[in-house]
## 1
Amino acid sequence: MVRHVSSAVPDEVHQSLLPRVQETGRSLEETAPDCLTLALRSPKAGEHLRRWTGAWASGVPDASIRHDDYLGEALSEDLKDRRDD
């Protein structure tokens, strides 16, 4: 099963992904999950990921619990806006 995740990342992380994107010729959206998978398989994965825990605030206190609801609402609004055009 594939899960879709939308996430904002610090500029430092984005810049770190760009060379990999150029190497593979794949999009950032395709490359980022591959890099995350490799990082999680690393023996030091816990240390690397803990560093980013709480690194930025979403402003939505229940985002980690209701993320599917919020994504569904955003998609619904986006599709509604496209139908109105």
Note: The chain has four helices and no strands.
## 2
Amino acid sequence: MQVRVAFRGRWVAVGMLAPSMLAVAIFVYGFIGWTARVSLSEWRGLLPDYTWAGLANFVDLFADRRFHIDLVNTLVFTSFFVVGAVTVGLLLAILLDRQFRGDSVFRSLFLFPLAISLVVTGVAWRWLMNPSTGERLSGLNLLLGTFGIDPLAWHTTDQPWGIAWVALPAVWQMAGFTMALFLAGLRAIPEELKEAARVDGASELQVYRGVILPLLRPVLLSALIILGHLSLKVFDLIVAMSGKDIRLDVPSIYMWTTTFDANNYARGAAIAIVVLVMVAVLVVPYLAWSLRREAEL
């Protein structure tokens, strides 16, 4: 009787999960497979053309100077975004871990940007980082002008750090997320470990460096993976701030313009597959490590 009930419950669970599994199989993995097939074709124009082209689209893509610029911009953006969000989030978490009066208010304020879409963030920061001069001076440049500092070109500069300024709004939005991760990790560390280090004569800096920060490494790794994969496929923030400015071009924007503006679906699919591989190289090892760790526990 118990075996029959367990067997029936198992089929009920499978029936409940089947629609979601089918949807994921079709709309995620099915479309990934279709995109991979298009990337190996000669589809140019509105009419589908699945003539086999092999790896020609990928060879042409990696020989394209614009794609080289995209990869450099992605590297610069990812570096500033990940380091900035992790650093700011960790500092905020350490401050909030002190549990002072009104800390819940500050915690809510720091988490509030997560409720805003990247498009809204981009529009707001486009005004804040307005590079105009003269009567149109506004935002941060207006603030700098009051202190006698010359206006900055911000993200409109031709220098490589133009894309780094775009990382600033992303840091502002995601610092609260990393703060929540680190704060949860700090609250999970037993107070006895900290007190034992203090009894042994360790200063607060030594307590954080020798006890707390090493125990936060799993949280740090999770934050790096999440932020890293977000930065590799960034699109809406940059478009909202500057449109399709070639100086701030990244693979996702190049994919959009190639596919929907130039109707070169084969190359657009190739760019999409490259972005997918970049994300997979970052995420898959982390997932394997997590599964192995759970199995050991």
Note: The two ends are 33 Å apart (CA to CA).
